[in-house]
Write a structure and sequence with these properties.
With about 325 residues, the chain is mostly beta strands. Helix content is about 5%, strand content about 45%. The longest helix has 6 residues. The chain starts with a strand and ends with a strand. This is Aldose epimerase.
């Protein structure tokens, strides 16, 4: 297997390129460490939604619906308020239609490249975001911490490892998600109608008109029940839905099958992600976002047990860590 890791550009933007056998991946350090591309170059599959050259400025203004953006803290917070251990942090209200803060502070700022390398085992890159006093994130989350994100590319696909290290002297919140944007179709000769998916959802959270959880569940439709076993189009209806995750066979995943190609893309995200968001842009064919999320939307403002809603606290010196993987398997046509 030939491998390579090198610094280059992607549509004019600084990029780290990884190559391993038939696979290729690209990370954009200056735009939130977004893993903007994961491809099978032999079969011409592009698994992630990528911005075209003419879309780059719009992408950098809103780098949410391409690649794999990091959300910290993820999703919505009512009136921008984030209560934490007797204090209330005020986030900017950046979603005027709901009056909420949306998607946190790390997906659109530069990360540092720690290293990149390649050998016979694969190619890899490590990036870090160190937040201290004076950093733009510290203004809203006044804690000292480091987020480290690593990607490895090899014959088994794309491997992701992320950790959050509390470098400070007080307990800090650790709430994280990925707004992963999957192409459907990802194959050149396939159509959206060739695709079906499966997802390890459990209960669906009821949301109010501000897209915030009420704290109650709502009944799953017959189609939503099919999400648990597969065979359902990712565009069966418009989705901006929030679910608990319930691992199957000890795995937490989304699997997208291309019946024409006889290939299944598996997004295995690890069991620390207790919640799923799924969004398909009003069932607009072409892409959808299965988003693994540690916490319930608006968790600090919801009066439910911390363990149930993923309201994770890191004590000084503690580290939270999780892994994920994107890979393909052959299935019957």
């Amino acid at each position: 297997m030939s491998t390579k890791a090198y610094e280059g550009t992607y549509n004019g933007e600084q990029a780290i390129w990884l190559q391993a056998g038939r696979y290729e991946a690209v990370v954009l350090p200056e735009v939130g460490a977004n893993l903007i591309a994961f491809r099978d170059i032999e079969k011409e599959y592009r698994f992630l939604r990528e911005p075209a050259m003419e879309e780059m400025e719009a992408f950098k203004e809103r780098p949410i619906v391409h690649g794999i953006p990091v959300l910290f803290p993820p999703n919505r917070y009512e009136d921008g308020k984030f209560p934490w251990k007797g204090k209330v942090f005020q986030f900017p209200v950046n979603e005027p239609k709901t009056g909420n803060h949306l998607h946190g502070f790390v997906h659109n700022i530069p990360w540092a490249v720690e290293n990149f390398s390649a050998d016979e085992q694969g190619s890899r890159v490590s990036l870090a975001l160190r937040v201290r006093e004076g950093h733009s994130v510290h203004e809203f989350l006044p804690f000292d911490f480091t987020i480290r994100l690593s990607y490895t590319l090899n014959e088994q696909g794309l491997h992701q490892q992320i950790s959050v290290h509390n470098d400070g002297q007080e307990a800090m919140p650790c709430l994280l998600a990925f707004h992963t944007t999957i192409n459907a179709p990802f194959a050149v000769n396939s159509q959206p109608s060739d695709y079906s998916f499966q997802m390890t959802i459990g209960e669906r959270w009821a949301l109010n008109d501000r897209m915030l959880p009420t704290g109650e569940y709502q009944a799953l439709s017959a189609d939503e029940e099919k999400m648990k076993v597969g065979g359902l189009s990712p565009f069966f209806e418009g989705m901006d839905n929030h679910y608990t995750s319930v691992p199957q066979n000890s795995r937490n995943f989304m699997a997208l099958t291309d019946a024409r190609e006889g290939i299944k893309l598996v997004y295995d995200v690890g069991t620390s992600y207790k919640q799923w968001m799924i969004w398909n842009n009003g069932k607009t064919e072409g892409f959808f976002c299965p988003e693994p999320q540690m916490n319930l939307v608006n968790a600090p403002n919801v009066d439910l047990p911390a363990d149930q809603i993923g309201l994770v606290s890191l004590e000084p010196g503690e580290v939270w860590e999780e892994t994920a993987r994107l890979y393909t398997i052959q299935v019957a046509k």
